[in-house]
Amino acid sequence: MMDEAAADLTNDASTDYPLLELVRQYGRADSHYLMGAVGSAAVKSFIGFADVFLIGIAIDALFNDQPLALPLLPDAWIPTATEPLLTLVFVGTLVIAVNAVTVFGGALAEFSFGVFAQRILHRIRVHAFDAAQHRRLDYFDAHRTGDVMSALNDDINQLESFFAVLISATVWIVVTLVAAIVYMSVLNWQLAVFVLLSGPFIAVLNSWFSRRIEPLQDGVRRERGALNALLETSLDGIGVVKAFTGEAHEYDRVESASRDHVRARFRSRRLAVRQAPLNRLVAGMWLLATLAIGVYWILVGPPVLFTGSLTTGELVPFLFYMERITLPLKNLSGVIDGYTSAKAAAKRIDGVTDGESEGECEIADDTSNSGFAVENSHVCFENVTFHYSNGAQPAIESVSFAVESGETVGVVGATGAGKSTAVKLLLGLYDSDDGTITIDGEDIRNVPVRCLRSAIGYVNQDAFLFNDTVRYNIAYGADGAVSDEQVREAARLAGVHDDITELLRGYDTEVGERGTSLSGGQRQRIAIARAVVDDPEILILDEATSHVDTKTERIIQDQLSDLVADRTTCVIAHRLSTVRTADRILVLDDGEIVERGTHEELLEYDGTYATLWNVQIGIADASTA
Ligand SMILES: Nc1ncnc2c1ncn2[C@@H]1O[C@H](COP(=O)(O)OP(=O)(O)OP(=O)(O)O)[C@@H](O)[C@H]1O
């Protein structure tokens, strides 16, 4: 079963024709490939049908003494009835020419469909990824990362078979049916009408199946997403799994999710496999009935409701065409199955791309394009209240404070008090429910996200590092646009330069997945270097030195003091010595500010802060005793 806590990715509000919408949105630039492919496939199928027609005409010319009537060819080219060998060679050459056109048309169609498929998939993949990374953070609170990855990977790959194979198969089916009907009508229009009467039966049968298969395909993709999400979290937390010998538990969870996926797939296949034999049965019955009518007509005369004559040379190709129709009908169920599966994938991709994004400003090389640049970095919270979408209580309630330009403010409070939430609101990662947050007097809702965030250097509690070199991770803070010397300077400020030079490959050392080849303290300091490398106007350190010993922390603070001196800085810390020298300290409790002042003022006030301080001093005394 799917994890109930995570929302389903499928966008049920999506258009009824999500695949058509994808082609319209992303396929326009390559529509000439699509047109070329459809045209080649149509020519291939239509011309390919001429061989049987030619053979039928040859039969009547050779055995029934009828003239060789070949439409579109000048009479002077056509052999007369007195030249049977020439007739045979002539028709044989035409059949070879028809097959050559068919082979060439088929190759051209395959090539063009392939190019179109790869180009449109590239655009969808890149756009879907970009849309995903611009979704608001609460989207990722509500959906599992593995599920989103499954949409960006599995579901987009699923579309490959739609663009590269299914469109061509559909064209083939349509053209085959149209061509067969045209050729059959030319041979005998009355028998062709009889064959057409099978159409409504087949249409009703297949629409019944597709209506039932579609929700089952949605279920398949949902279960696949859930399985992927589980695989991702299990492997992501492999260290914890091993430490708690949780392998058997993880195995059971994956086994159960895989079983759910197999069941969902089985439910949809079980229905789909009945479709092909039923189509075949209807087509076979019609073929037999046509054969019976045709034989009776040739031997006895026209049956009731039929008039005129029918020759063997007409009936034989007619039956060949009917047989050729049954082939696409046999494939119709596979095409419908593939189509519903691709439609389910498209709805999930739509679930990623269609929704509220962060309103990113045009990606500009400099902030001047956006019309706003943070200058004084004066930050003000006014009566800010915020609930997480899945939280019962507000994480922040009626919070008001102002940080003057160049000031350092410390934020302390018990775990879960709302400290990190406050800075996430300042970064615009979430939007407050009530109240306003301003920078330099401008509501941050009106400041383009890119401009806002490029003005803020942020070190969060995770100190997440990318699986790349130390240099890459530090330079990331400035979009990679910094010199090696700037990277080293940032590392010095963060007190990690010496540690880096002692690594095997210095700044070129690969830090491993999430930086696991480094110590927690090294990771935090590299994250600080990343935050300061671009010389941001505002610096936010959220538990940025919690893994660093107090001596190293003091060194970092001394080194950062120059940097911090002329910029607005917000330091969140549990260790109160970290914020002791701040210009102002805010004490948060249960989402509200309960005390504010300098270290000395708060000690004198003798409230929550003083109690916390005394406890920490007591711990320090106990440890040194
Ligand atoms: N993404 C989230 N979705 C739902 N609730 C959240 C989310 N992040 C935090 N919360 C809740 O919001 C409240 C405030 O969390 P926050 O992380 O701001 O606290 P904090 O003071 O920074 O805690 P700590 O010192 O432990 O980091 C907590 O009750 C927490 O459970």
TrEMBL record:
Q: How does it sit in the membrane?
A: Multi-pass membrane protein
The subcellular location is: Cell membrane
Q: For the ABC transporter domain, which residue ranges apply?
A: 379-615
Q: Which UniProt keywords apply?
A: ATP-binding, Cell membrane, Membrane, Nucleotide-binding, Transmembrane, Transmembrane helix, Transport
Name the InterPro entries on file: AAA+_ATPase, ABC1_TM_dom, ABC1_TM_sf, ABC_transporter-like_ATP-bd, ABC_transporter-like_CS, P-loop_NTPase, Type_1_exporter
Transmembrane region positions? 41-64, 84-117, 162-183, 189-209, 278-298
Highest taxon listed in the record's lineage: Archaea
- Keyword field contains rRNA-binding: no
Q: What is its main location?
A: membrane
Q: Which GO terms describe its biological process?
A: transmembrane transport
Residues of the ABC transmembrane type-1 domain: 36-341
**MF GO annotations:** ATP binding
Q: What is this protein called?
A: ABC transporter ATP-binding protein
